[in-house]
Design goal:
2 copies of one chain form a homodimer. Chain A folds into 3 domains: about 1-170, Molybdenum Cofactor Biosythetic Enzyme, Chain A (3-Layer(aba) Sandwich); about 180-250, Alpha-Beta Plaits (2-Layer Sandwich); about 260-410, Alpha-Beta Complex (Maf protein). Chain A contains 14 helices and 17 strands. Chain A has helices at about 10-15, 20-30, 45-60, 80-85, 95-105, 155-170, 190-200, 230-240, 255-265, 280-285, 305-310, 315-320, 325-340, 385-410; strands spanning about 1-10, 35-40, 65, 90, 120, 125-130, 135-140, 145-150, 180-185, 205-215, 215-225, 245-250, 270-275, 295-300, 345-350, 365-370, 375-380. In chain A, a hairpin with a 2-residue loop joins β16 (about 365-370) and β17 (about 375-380). In chain A, α7 packs across α8. β2 (about 35-40) of chain A pairs antiparallel with β2 (about 35-40) of chain B, so a sheet runs across the interface.
Chain lengths: ~400, ~400
């Protein structure tokens, strides 16, 4: 089954609004074994809408999902543009219109002049209910193609998909055709070199994709045959090669996995951040349940706070500076002692764009990690933008903790 | 000038990866007066790539921007697929290849077998340097269309666009056709009610869009006539009504504006975060130059840290609890005193999904703000997901600081 997704809106093409609808619909369809073969983003114009429809109807897509342009204002033209394209009439769904009037009256608001548009659908379509917004959706057929038309407001679109379109038209979700192996701490080409012989040997009828980011590389397997066991076998063989580089095979983040490892072991963490400025703490506390292991920490952006709150000595700061192995060491040791946590992470570095010197260039960073056995500090040079420098520092620090937990703190 | 953006990747169509490249490129092109008429997302397949190219070349786009599929692994097929489509040869750029080898050798790593692909370009193209990754970009012409091919890794694509493609091919940015009024602290429908009479009176030939998010509402004006003064007049009239609700008319974030206000006034800030867990500090330190005003702070997730590092009394925590006006007050007062900052922000609340009680439900949050004159605490109930609760708390806290600075700390 092949599908196409069309998102309509000038604000998308101008880059003012990030299109998250396409991604969300893609994900749901993947789970329902529907391949998305094409996504289009087009302007609020008859020419754009008609040209896109001609394109997708020519290409024999079984399903087309359209979002956007059903609202009550003058720039919402999707409904009328489709009417012209299909050369049909418009019908008003009276029940829906009356319930909108009732809802608005109850709140003492004025009835907008263009309210009826929200209950108007193509005569060749059936209505799809909108339980949290005003505009009805539509389902229609053209040749072999089934077309769903939905509002662009993400919450309304998602509710229509989840409550009506998916359950009424598609089989229930099944993720078994995909496996995602998530790794941290090794580059894409090295991983590829390490496992390419395994893919050659066991990868027949399995599509293998490498998805790199500055946080790590995801290896995504897609089964193309009816034999799921072969994909599991390939996954097992890849695991044998990559071992602890892999942090999970489900859809959790590195910080989620590491946080869960701490929770499972009933161990606690504190964090002393300089250059990452709260990012590591933010990543851990994004997760529900992080209070089970994260005690908290200190953001010591200014040197005074490194001295006053983290007890880094004035001599250290004067002699070797804030961005140094010694400072990272003191920060990790002292925050652990101050908070009584089992582990502590520290970061100190120069994320840029300013602040670099010849000796200590932008990109330099020290990451400290302490536990009951002492402290280790690693030095890195991430030559990236400020944002990436901070994110790579955070991911590297969290991965160091994960590897330490794996090596020295088994659950059994 | 009309452009088309093509993003290539199965991971995009499967919803595994959110396509942010299209949005970013759209935004840059808008600023350069290039209209994006179409965006396509297509699979890693020759059929998909060739069909998309036929489509865009038939439609007379002046510029086509392609991202994705230039990496070193077997699923990166863009380069070869374009070679077949244009029926040309491939060239290796030796200088780039040697510099990659040198870079890898210096780090004591093994040279990957497929490294040469990263320096390989179409014979009909010129290379675009990649200063932070391995794969070269390409620029080529086909008929009247200029095509740019870039890696899918966002940071690499952005650097290529910013350093080479935009300055060398397009006139410099001019935003005069657009004005964006950014607000914080008031809902969309209230803002609309307040300014709709102004829009009716002064908004002829100006498109006004309301773009709400949980961080605030942006009001976007687009000039449709040759008379820019009319749009400036409308903007001024809206400003008169909304006043301090507006935090900027450029493209800065709330935290950027607030940080700049602190820097301009040579005032400093410290932060004591509980439920936001580092998010506020992270938002401020995302900005270069934040060390000019942010001293740092304490993340007191566990009550022990509220007592030990923030000197919140055991009585307060026992009698009224961590999520209370008194605790927020003590946190804001004490972190300011400990760090010697001019201002301090504190947050304590229940972001959920767990941790709520009948008295203190999920969503409850107290935000404290202290300066030399004392401390104020405000209570909110943001009934949202954990993520939105944290983001709304952070935005509300930063906006409180901005309003305090506006009211009581003028620059003159």
């Amino acid at each position: 089954m092949k599908a196409c997704i069309i998102t309509i809106g000038d604000e998308l093409l101008q880059g003012f609004t990030l299109d998250t609808n396409s991604n969300w619909i893609s994900k749901q369809l993947s789970k329902h074994h529907v391949d998305v073969g094409l996504r289009l983003t087009i302007p609020d114009s008859d020419a754009g809408i008609h040209s896109a429809l001609n394109n997708v109807l020519d290409n024999d897509f079984e399903y087309v999902f359209i979002t956007g342009g059903l609202g009550p204002t003058h720039d919402d033209i999707t409904r009328n543009s489709l009417k012209e394209f299909f050369n049909c009439d418009l019908n008003v769904i009276d029940d829906h219109h009356e319930s909108l009037i009732k809802w608005i009256s109850q709140r003492g608001r004025k009835i907008p002049s263009n309210l009826k548009s929200q209950s108007t659908i193509l005569s060749i379509s059936t209505a799809i209910a909108n339980s949290i917004g005003s505009a009805l959706g539509m389902k229609l057929r053209s040749g072999k193609t089934t077309i769903f038309v939905m509002p662009g407001v993400p919450a309304e679109m998602k509710k229509m998909m989840t409550d009506y379109i998916l359950p009424e038209n598609f089989t229930r979700p099944d993720d078994s055709q995909f496996i995602t192996i998530r790794t941290s701490g090794m580059g894409e080409s090295i991983i590829f070199d390490k496992i390419s012989h395994v893919i050659d040997k066991f990868g027949n009828n399995i599509k293998v994709a490498f998805l790199p980011s500055h946080r790590g590389v995801n290896i995504r397997l897609k089964n193309l045959s009816s034999d799921l066991q072969k994909m599991v076998k390939l996954k097992d063989e890849i695991s044998k090669v990559l071992q602890s580089i892999i942090f999970t095979e489900d859809d959790r983040d590195l910080q989620e996995v590491t946080g869960q490892m701490l929770s499972d072991r009933r161990l606690t963490l504190s964090i002393a951040e300089s250059c990452t400025g709260g990012l590591i703490s933010k990543l851990f506390t994004d997760q529900p349940g992080s209070s089970a292991f994260l005690l908290g920490g200190v953001i010591a952006y200014h040197n005074d706070l490194k001295m006053d709150l983290l007890k880094v000595s004035a001599e250290t700061l004067e002699n070797v500076g804030a961005v140094s192995e010694e400072t990272a060491k003191a920060m990790a040791l002292n925050i652990r002692e101050i908070t009584g946590s089992d582990f502590a992470i520290s970061t100190t570095g120069i994320s840029g764009p300013g602040g670099g010197t010849e000796d200590k260039p932008v990109g330099l960073v020290y990451i400290g990690m302490s536990d009951a056995n002492g402290v280790i500090v690693k030095k890195f040079n991430f030559l990236k933008t400020r944002k990436l420098h901070r994110e790579m520092t955070a991911a590297t620090a969290i991965n160091m903790l994960r590897l330490l937990l794996l090596e020295k703190y088994s659950t059994t």
